[in-house]
Structure formats: structure tokens, C-alpha cells
Specification:
alpha/beta; nine-stranded mixed β-sheet; 11 strands; 6 helices; two-stranded antiparallel ribbon; single chain
């Protein structure tokens, strides 16, 4: 049976790409928890996770050309459909919305299991792109978990991504960003790739450009064969606010004026420490014990 998310003939010619996207509270949200330890999300303005915007940009680029196809997938409450509508406005061709009251409060493992099941059942993706992290949870876990559940290689965070034919098979080549610097990676497809923040400009479209929902398929737990109560192994036992220790400074004016302000600010903060470091060390008295 042919899945309508996969265009006929697409398997032979174009690259099939999926971007996993998430709806998050605007500016990361308040961080407040409800009585059962879940992040409060009701009543807050929302947007597409900034890192996911990069995944959408790369998905549209990689799927461009004859036979290519791009799909956006999200898991969330009914209003999360908006991130899929925006992804469609940015060039993604179809979308999948995993939504079910039973998934409310799902942790990373439950979320990854649902996403993996949906990818396996409803797509034929060669490249699965995820944002490196999300501004509300910041776990960086969904990509590696989905890859493990699907038995696929995982690479990230990727700055540059391209796909090539080698020996009759498709391989993904990427430049990865890490604390140690940059390094090259090469994996056979299919694969899961986390996209780095600086990889490209994030996809964005104003709400008046968002299409309707005719290209969005809704999937429930029952559709994925998941029944019974959802058991998330993660439990939040407490939380505390991190005290702010830095005072933010907003620069204004022209670019040259802002550069001058930044230099003045840097000098005012570094010169006292540098001066203290240049002060001569007083000679040790002979009576001072070693």
C-alpha cells in the first residue's frame, strides 16, 4: 500500500527528507511547573522552536529537485498544528501531526517512541532532521533516541550537510560542530541528523502566509498501535530558579557606534583585572615561613 505522504516515483529519483519540529513557548516560557511537575504551557504565546527552523530549511533544500519530498512532523496538542502550517508555508510539502490526550506530559522517551513509530509507519525517510535542542527543555535527547529506536546512525550537530552517491548507495556527509572544533562525518543513509544553530538561516513565515490543514495528517496513539496508559519514567521532584548573576547590556546606534560601545565595555571589564595582574609581587620577608 502506497503512503500518500510519499509521492509516487519519489523513491527512485529524489531525496525523501523529514524534519521533526516542536512548538515551544515564545522566548522559552516561564519555566513554571504545574502541580504534577510538568511545564505550564497553557495561556502562553508559542512559536516553532528556533533550532527546528534550521531543520526545516535544510529539509526543503535537500528535498529540492525532481522526485524529492519533504515532510514536517510534530507531536503536541491540537494547537501545535500551527508549526506544521508554518513549515508548509516555508516550502515543506506535507506534514504529520501526532496528537492525543494520552501523550500529555510525555517525557523524552515517550516522545521519541511515538515519533519513531510514526516515522516507521507513515514515512519512508532517508534523512531525518532534528534541531540540536529546544529552548524549553534543552535536553538534546530526541534525535539520538529516535535514531536508536529506529536502528539508524546519528550525527550532529551538523553545520554543513550534503548527500552524494557512492558505489550505487547514498551517503550523507556533514561538517560537525563540537567543543573541540569541527570535524567531518560520513554515514550511510538512512540516518538521523541534528542541525546546528549556525548551519543556516532558520525558516520563518508570517502567519498570514500559513496554509490550511489539508496537507496535514493527524495521527493518534491508536493509529500507531499504542494502547493502555502512558508511563513516562521521568519524574520531576523539585525545581529552583537560577539567580541572575549577569546584567544584560543592550547596544544601540549604528554598527560602528555599537562596535565602539562594545570595545569600551570590554576594556572597562578587563583593564582592572589586567592592571592587578601587572602589579609587582612584594618580596617575601625572610621571617615569612615557607
Amino acid at each position: 500500500m502506497t503512503d500518500p505522504l510519499i509521492p509516487p516515483g519519489g523513491a527512485a529519483r529524489g531525496l525523501r527528507v523529514v524534519a521533526l519540529v516542536k512548538q515551544v513557548p515564545l522566548d522559552g516560557g516561564s519555566g513554571d511547573l504545574d502541580p504534577v511537575g510538568r511545564l505550564r504551557r497553557t495561556g502562553q504565546d508559542t512559536e516553532m522552536n528556533p533550532w527546528c527552523r534550521r531543520a526545516v530549511t535544510q529539509a526543503v533544500r535537500l528535498a529540492a529537485g525532481p522526485g524529492g519530498h519533504s515532510t514536517a512532523v510534530t507531536m503536541g496538542p491540537p494547537r501545535a498544528v500551527d508549526v506544521l502550517r508554518e513549515a508548509l508555508a516555508c516550502g515543506v510539502q506535507s506534514a504529520l501531526h501526532l496528537t492525543d490526550p494520552g501523550w500529555a506530559g510525555a517525557d523524552c522517551l515517550v516522545t521519541a517512541k511515538a515519533l519513531a513509530a510514526a516515522l516507521e509507519t507513515h514515512t519512508d525517510a532517508e534523512v531525518i532532521l532534528v534541531g540540536r535542542s529546544s529552548v524549553d527543555g534543552n535536553t538534546t535527547a530526541i534525535g539520538p533516541m529516535v535514531a536508536e529506536l529506529l536502528g539508524l546512525p546519528f550525527v550532529g550537530a551538523a553545520l554543513d550537510i550534503d548527500v552524494a552517491e557512492e558505489g550505487g548507495a547514498r551517503v550523507l556527509r556533514a561538517t560537525l560542530q563540537s567543543e573541540e572544533g569541527r570535524r567531518a562525518a560520513r554515514v550511510a543513509l538512512p540516518a538521523v541528523v541534528a542541525v546546528a544553530e549556525r548551519s543556516c538561516r532558520g525558516a520563518k513565515a508570517s502567519s498570514d502566509m500559513w496554509p490550511g490543514t489539508d496537507r496535514i495528517r493527524t495521527v493518534s496513539r491508536r493509529d500507531l498501535g499504542q494502547t493502555g496508559p502512558v508511563t513516562s519514567p521521568t519524574r520531576v521532584t523539585g525545581a529552583r530558579r537560577q539567580a541572575r548573576v549577569r546584567t544584560p547590556v543592550v547596544l544601540s546606534g549604528t554598527l560602528d557606534e555599537q562596535v565602539e560601545q562594545a570595545l569600551d565595555l570590554w576594556q572597562s571589564r578587563t583593564e582592572p583585572a589586567a592592571a592587578a595582574a601587572r602589579e609587582p609581587v612584594p618580596p617575601r620577608s625572610r621571617s615569612t615561613p615557607l
